[in-house]
Write a structure and sequence with these properties.
Elements (H helix, E strand, L loop, with lengths): L8 H12 L6 E2 L17 E4 L8 E2 L27
Parallel strand pairs: 1-2, 2-3
Amino acid sequence: MVKSISYSEEEILNWILTLHCSTEIELDPTYSKGNFYKGSIKDPLYKYDLYPQREDVIECNAEKLPLGNETINTMIFDPPFFSDYR
């Protein structure tokens, strides 16, 4: 059973993977500290970030990833949110 609401990111991600993905998350181009990956959510194979927060994350702009076409099947994209109050 899949519910349509949850307050747990882990639960929501597991439902999305169950419903829509045939593999684990393979790519996260905005990995940051990897806060999504806890419990049953495995770290992706490819971890990139513009400003890496961990040694195992490669510095890279999400617009120009060093991957070929059709390299991955599943990715998560959670860009940072900025506000500019002037």
